Structures are given as structure tokens and as C-alpha cells.
Amino acid sequence: MSTVFPYRLIATDLDGTLLREDQSVSRRTRDALAAATSAGAAHIVVTGRAVPWTRPILEDLGYEGLAVCGQGAQVYDAGADRLLTSVTLDRQLAGVALAKIEAEVGPLYLAASRDGLDGDVLVGPGYEVKGALPATPFTEASDLWTAPLNKLYIQHPRLTSDELAEAATRVAGGFVTVTMAGEGIVELLPLGLSKATGLSLAARRLGVKAAETIAFGDMPNDIPMFAWSAHGVAMANAHEDLKSVADEVTTSNEQDGIAQTLEHLLP
Q1: Alpha carbon distances (Å) from 200 to 56, 183, 184, 208
Q2: Quick one: which of 181, 69, 71 has its CA closest to 129?
Q3: What's the gap between Cα 124 and its chain centre?
Q4: Could you say which of 29, 95, 157, 231 has the lowest number of CB atoms within 10 Å?
Q5: What DSSP letter does each residue of 55-87 carry, written as one string?
Q6: What is the per-residue pLDDT across 227-264, written as a single tens digit (0 to 9) for each?
């Protein structure tokens, strides 16, 4: 398939990347994505959010294609409102990982994302949800393990997210994948899972190769997606770890960084 746009797939993270701080997508960015898709590219959302937290954004965009949700755990067909793939966390391994992390750094604040199209996010005492996202409180830790999970979220009363992610990886990295998706958002995932896992599955369904993909992101959880894609573009507001592996740094999510890059690539 020939195209006048240099990439066949545009992969975008949501928070801190496609979305502005008020959770909206600017008209300029919408227009740039529409122009790129008219020129032959496909746009795919690749987010750490599980499907229930992603669906309202997709509906606002009028998005009906595939989306990669839950840090790669879920490939979601937005048009059909159907999960095509879903990877769950081994709860026994997750319990071992939590015990090892708490033995290293002390008690953690916990939350968990349940599997499924309508899976709740359970939030324990002390855990601070970033943004006005729907969540269900729990008080008994045993409640975490009663249904399949995509991932666990951990916070610490004193450590920064970078410090917590480093400590968790060091002591529990053989049991789970640890990733940082933003300040206050450290996640425990199925071992070996990343955004690249889900993106590669979705790209295969679309008949697109890694060499035909440009990716946009802002946090360390986007590093595997950049490694998989031909060209990785970090936002100006991105974490330094992501900027250090990016092929390019654009302007911030508040300054239409995705649009600026796409406009330069459009004929």
C-alpha cells in the first residue's frame, strides 16, 4: 500500500501526550491526526489506562479502531466494544512481589485494575488516584484477589515514584514487570508485558510493521513502545528517561506537540 505520509501507523499515549491537562484533545491535534489518516496512516491509542478508563476518551474522539490499553494487556476493538486480547496478572506471583517490595521499603498504598470491559479500579486506604477517574474503595486487602486483575498500582508515603519503581524492580523484577506511568503511578504488571507487547499484536492485526510506526509518549512506560517503533517522539514534558532514548523531542502536550510533529511530516 502506497502512502504520502511517511509512516503507516501513528501510536500515541494518552495522558501527558495526546491529552492536555484538562483531559481534552485540542482541535489542532484532532485536525493533524485526521490529515495524517487521510494521507494513509492509521492512528492507534496505546495507553496505560485499562478499557473502562480509556473508553470515554475514545468516544469523544469518535475513535472506532483498535486501541492498546492496560499497558499492553488489552487489545480493544472500540468500534465493536470488544476485547480481542486480555492478559491477566498471576495473583500468586503478584502477592510474592508485593511482600518482597514491602519487606524492602515498608507498607505500600495499593490499588488494582480488574480485568474486563467494565473492570473496576479498586483503591485502598491512602492511595491517591490521579485525576477524576472512577474508582471503588476497598478496606480489606483480601478484596484485591477475588477477581482477575490486569495490574496492581503501588504508592509509598515517602519515596518518589522513581525511587519506588527502582526498588520494586530490584527486589521483585523476577516476578512481575514494574513500570512507571507518571508521578504517583507505579504499576506491577504480568512479567514481560509492556506497551510494545500490545502494540505489536495490534499492528499485526492491522498488517503494519514496526518499521512503519511512529510513536509519541511522555513516561518510562513508553520506552518499550519507542524501542519497538521506527521513530519515537517524546513530549517536551516527558520524563528524562524517555527523552534519553527518543529519536526526537517535540513541544509539550499543552502546546500541541503531536500536531507540530505530524504537520512537519505531512506533504
Answers
A1: 24, 27, 27, 9
A2: 181
A3: 22
A4: 157
A5: HHHHHHHT--SEEEEGGGTEEEETTTTEEEEE-
A6: 999 999 999 999 999 999 999 999 999 999 999 999 99
